[in-house]
Structures are given as structure tokens and as C-alpha cells.
Amino acid sequence: MEEKIIHKELSYRITRLLFKIHTELGRYCREKQYGDALEKALLTQNIRFQREKDLPVEAIDNKLTNKVDFIIEDKIILELKAKQVVLKEDYYQVQRYLNAGGYKLGLIINFRNKYLKPIRIIRINS
């Protein structure tokens, strides 16, 4: 049976960095602090990324913005959270980013969890 894990090696490399950051900083920092730590780690590992990148907005809605936390190697969208619970809206947000940017894989990382559990989101409108 063929494995169909999208961007397997790259997502594992990113996940290792995220676990290290979670261990070092703990659960109660701000989202920006996690983002700054990830930026340093990505630079150290020579992983290409864009931070806080604007993506095209599909719908006309002044409240709606498409500013993704990280785009890694122009393949994976990474959305960082530091809150009690990941909500349905967070899934919709990443799905919107995937569609707007034409990416296949997004990761939601909630650093507030006691144990880090990256959530993989696959674009549904391929």
C-alpha cells in the first residue's frame, strides 16, 4: 500500500522543531514568542519560510484577512495558536488559507496544550 502523507519529511522536520520550542518555552507564552522562536529555529536549520504572509482574499469581507503565520518551503502553511482550545473557526481559517494560496497541507499548532499535538489540515478543494 502506497503511503500518502503529504510533505512527510518536511512536516516531520518542522514538528521536531515545534516540540523542542514547546519544551523550552512551556505552555504559557504568547503566540508571538513562539513565532519568534520558530523563526530562529527555521533559520538555524536552513529551512526556507515566509512569516506573516498575506494571501489573496477570496471573499469581499472587511473582517476577513488572509495573513498566514508561516509558509514553509512554499509547501506547508503553519498556523500557531496559544489558547485553551482550537475551535472550528481555526480549522476554517486554515482551510481558507490553503485554498487562497493553493497549498495542500496546513498545520495548526496550539502551544497551550500540555502535550503538543500538531493538527494536519488537508485542502479539500484540490
Task: Give me a quick take on this structure.
The chain is built from three helices and five strands, in the order H-H-E-E-E-H-E-E. The chain has 126 residues and is of the alpha+beta class.
Please, could you describe this protein's structure?
The chain is 37% helix and 22% strand. It is an alpha+beta fold and 126 residues long. It has one domain: Lambda Exonuclease, Chain A. The model has no long low-confidence stretch (mean pLDDT 91). Helix 1 (8-25) packs across helix 2 (31-44). The chain contains three helices and five strands. It has helices spanning 8-25, 31-44, 88-101; strands at residues 49-54, 67-72, 76-81, 105-110, 119-122. The protein is globular. Strands 1-2-3-4-5 form a five-stranded mixed β-sheet, with helices on both faces. The two termini are 22 Å apart.
List the helices and strands and how they pair.
Layout lengths: L7 H18 L5 H14 L4 E6 L12 E6 L3 E6 L6 H14 L3 E6 L8 E4 L4
Parallel strand pairs: 3-4
Antiparallel strand pairs: 1-2, 2-3, 4-5
Key features?
single chain, 126 residues, alpha+beta, Lambda Exonuclease, Chain A, five-stranded mixed sheet, 3 helices, 37% helix, 22% strand
CATH topology: Lambda Exonuclease, Chain A
Query: What percent of the residues sit in helical stretches (DSSP H or I)?
Result: 25-40%
Task: Give the strand content.
Answer: 15-25%
Indicate the radius of gyration in whole angstroms: 14 Å
Secondary-structure class: alpha+beta
Overall pLDDT = 91
CATH architecture: Alpha-Beta Complex
By CATH reckoning, the class would read: Alpha Beta
Total strands: 5
Please state the overall shape, judged from the principal axes of the Cα atoms.
globular
- Give the N-to-C terminal Cα separation: 22 Å
How many separate helices? 3
The H-and-E topology, N to C, reads as HHEEEHEE
Domain unit count: 1
Mind summarizing the main beta sheet? 5 strands, mixed
Q: Unreliable segments (pLDDT under 50, ≥5 consecutive)?
A: none
- Major sheet strand order: 1-2-3-4-5
